[in-house]
Fold these 2 entries.
Entry 1:
Amino acid sequence: MNPVIEAVVAALILVGAFFLLVGALGLARLPNMMSRLHGPTKATTLGIGSLLIASIVYFTATRGSFSVHELLITLFLFLTAPVSAQMLAKAHLLRSREEQSRVTPTGRPADWATLAKGTHDAS
Amino acid sequence: MRARLLPHPLLTLLLILVFIFLMNEATPGVVVLGIVLGIVIPLLTAPFWPGRPMLKAPLTIASYVLIVLWDIVRSNIEVAGIILFRPADRLRTRYVTVPLDIVTPEAIAVLAGTITMTPGTVSADLSADGRALLVHCLDAGDPEGAVAAIKARYESRLKRIFE
Amino acid sequence: MITIAIAIAAGAICLALGLTLYRLVVGPDATDRVLALDTLVIEAIALIVLIGIAYGTGMYFEAALLFAMVGFVTTVAFCKFLLRGNVIE
């Protein structure tokens, strides 16, 4: 294989692994639940994205035909990561009194959807 | 006739593209099967798609996608820096409230997703009347600045795309 | 060169799995554990893709895609349970 492509694939793999490790490190060391949410949702998406780009480049170079189906996983993870992050935030907000005291007001007559009575999953 | 056969043209196009990507080849057989699935699936799942969101300003969509991709890369590096080098007691985590000008549910969903993927912010909740977004900042030195940046950078573009 | 990169990356991802397992065991809250499970799924996908590159086969793509889908549905179901005490109403 072309040494330039080989170097690109190796670099992308290392970048991906680095961001995955940083995401897990954030999950392990940040002090509270809401800040822990930042590590995995961000770092892991770029980590996995860069690994999948490495896979696309590698298979396109070795097979000689363009390989794109890895893009589907990337796209899927980019669409689902915010959804699961928001569900986790809502669940945490509902369960923790301490977290509820930190929330800023809506600036509107209605309260936040998770905290308003009887409409836990309104959004 | 066209509206009855293709209730959601964009969904049909997306399904065809996803099917070709999944098969990883664009031979005639795959394309034909993709078109058949792209027509049948929207018809079968029509009850789940009551509204038909209109997309305007295709150039704005392209610039929005590029801006968000760039911000994802930037935010990852920024968050990695915070996780690796910042002592936990020097983090200024806090909530901010983002009042919304957009009302379309699709636009609000895209905005919430974008906020979660971009620098140091996670969208946590929507107000019960759908007019304000609760955002958690990992490190906010300047809360008003963060809100203004979200509104100017993403919300104004989404308003042009969806409304 | 790629072989060395894959070995280093596999080590880093295993370390990441260890850190995530630590959070899964320590908790303290149920939402922390769900978040840890979600991250475990993403790291498992990364390992699968890495193995695919190492063996030079596209066989693992379907496994990774299915894992991504099942992981997402699991996380949402857990959150729904925490929010409502019920998954399907």
Entry 2:
Amino acid sequence: MHLKTGAYIPDEDHVVRHVKWGQLEKDCDDNVLGILPQAFVLRATEESLSFNWLEYFDGSREDQLTNIKSDLSTRLNVGSKSFFCIGNVKNIKDKGKEFGATSIRIAYAPTHGNKSHVALFRLPDEDLKLLEALASDVFVERIQAQDLP
Amino acid sequence: MSVHYLSVNQPFLSRDSRKIEASPYFNSSNEPNITISSDGFGGVSDMNAQVFSKALAGLAEPLQRLASSTPPSMLESVRSGKPTRLDERLYDATATVKIKMSNVAMHIGTEWRDKLFNQIDSLHDIKEWDEDDNPVNKDSFGAFIKELILLKPDNHPGLGLSFNGNVIAMWRKNNDKLIIEFLANGKAKWLVSHDVGGDVERASGISNLLRLPECIAPYNPERWFKK
């Protein structure tokens, strides 16, 4: 399926967040336990949080994630220890509402070389409780980059 | 007494009139003349000050470089405002926090210090980094070490980094989590997550480092800290 730039991603679809090694929850021996809430904090230069639209690509989950990894690799370093974390669009919005964030918008925003790029707007990223809930309850499907081709 | 000095091609402050005058001590080609003065100590002192200040001006930058606490590999970055190479930034940040840690090694113990060194090396693994990522902020790391000494946990925390280089310490017991982000301004953002039969209760706040133990006390932090 393809959408116009700026169109909202359908509720039943999924978005993928690339989470770097530093933003993963780990024990003292560096075993990965999950995602830190800080993985959903905006950088100072960002106006929206970046994701990739999983269903933009056809094929199996692995095919879709491999395509996303390939696109991201053209503009940033996808470290082997980083993770791709998948969340359902409706679950993200519902979790936001649970914490009072009723106006979260998830829109298709392709960029040069990253054609499945999605922008998430109006996430109150100072609310650690909401971010932790997203990390623990919504982005529960996770695949390590080194496990993808 | 006759005093010799080198006159330079610049205005000077007259001893008597205390006003700026054009120096008579340069030629038509704009080159300095060498002249001899015998007009007394006061005038000599004023003139010498000018001569030495001119001579010292060239030394100011090298002297400042020597006195600077900034590591030599960071000087170009400081001067130009542009980041140096990623591997240099990571190396400098790692060295800085390890030195900081060595200063308090007596409070931490060798085993834990070695583990922390490994965790820092792992966080700064260049294979996981991009140019626009920020390595560990030394003030945040200092706050983290202070809090560790204050809390004295038996269980060592996992470590993470925020996008702006703040240290994040985390403990987990079953599904219950304690996450603390140490800010560079001496405060800490904390989050407690407690699983009560499938319902997750969460609490969070921002506290002064000294108040942090009291702020998390109601959430029974011993479950994370004690063996």
